[in-house]
Specification:
By secondary structure, the chain is of the alpha/beta class. Among the domains are: 89 residues, Rossmann fold, CATH 3.40.50; 119 residues, NAD(P)-binding Rossmann-like Domain (Rossmann fold). Helices cover 39% and strands 13% of the residues. It contains 10 helices and 9 strands. The strands form 2 sheets. Strands 1-9-8-7-5-6 form a 6-stranded parallel β-sheet. A 3-stranded parallel β-sheet has the order 3-2-4, with helices on both faces. The protein binds NADP nicotinamide-adenine-dinucleotide phosphate. The site of NADP nicotinamide-adenine-dinucleotide phosphate (NAP) has 25 residues, from helix 10. NADP nicotinamide-adenine-dinucleotide phosphate (NAP) binds next to helix 10.
Length: 298
Amino acid sequence: MHQTHAARLMDGTGLARRITERSAARAAQITRDTGTAPCLATVLVGDDPASVTYVRMKRARCEKAGIVSRHVGLPSTTTTAELVDAVSALSQDPQVHGILLQHPVPSHIDERAAFEAIAPEKDVDGVTMRSFAAMSFGLPGFVSCTPGGIMRLLEEYDVDLAGRHAVVVGRSAILGKPVGMLLLAGNATVTYCHSRTKDLESIVRQADILVAAVGRPQFIRGEDVKPGAVVIDAGYNPGNVGDVDFETAQTRASLITPVPGGVGPMTIAVLLAQTVDAAARQLGLGPDRRVLSCDGAR
Ligand code: NAP
């Protein structure tokens, strides 16, 4: 069946590769200049298969980019106090520049307490309350990685945010909420939708910039996409299916992220870039703005 291909694709794979190449070059420079390689510590509690895979992927990408990867694996019986101690030890370790605590932790653990044990200057995954405050005030700091990746994609494709209506569907702490905060800091007019939102479709239809972060396959119908809208599909559901009905949406949108190859690859790229920035700062070199320039959002 022939479809009109109106929308331009936003290529997250290519942009993520370019950011990662710059991070690797910067990591090599830091290592040459200081004798110390940037180091990301990953912390994983338990053995959830998806989390094990994510952590393995992140570690492999780090090593490929010349970032040392240190791993702390803890049993699923770990208590909040034990996890806080392990994270605090990494926060105090001068050899470690970034810390990633893989989410979710087992339900008996106070996740917030564990996140807050991450030293702010090492919070390269943007999970502490201090990082959230910086995002909400539009101040410099580390951003949540997937939202940071979305902002960087918007910047790459010269999407003007000021005064435009951004609708974010989803309000999770790692995705929907922070991306809305960053869009607001970029002067968009932001509406959040969530599971209690009434008449969600009519709000979606008003979106100049639509961010789908729901976790339900093809939840956003193409016919609800405003003609000319920029559509960011952060969803990733089994079978490589996004939260947006891509086939129909792309006939109406001006720009759209594919799934896979849109938002997905950006998350690790932002993590690596922020780790290199963190190392540069801690080693007294200052950040390299070229690695991750989403200053409009920070
Ligand atoms: P989440 O924590 O489950 O949050 C889902 C959000 O969607 C919640 O705010 C929820 O509302 C809302 N929602 C659920 N059902 C809804 C409905 N019927 N109508 C309106 N809103 C509804 O998920 P998440 O962690 O944010 O992830 C969302 C998606 O992004 C998933 O597909 C995930 O795989 C993907 N993701 C991708 C990346 C990446 O590409 N790197 C990273 C992170 C997540 P309530 O708050 O009211 O419950």
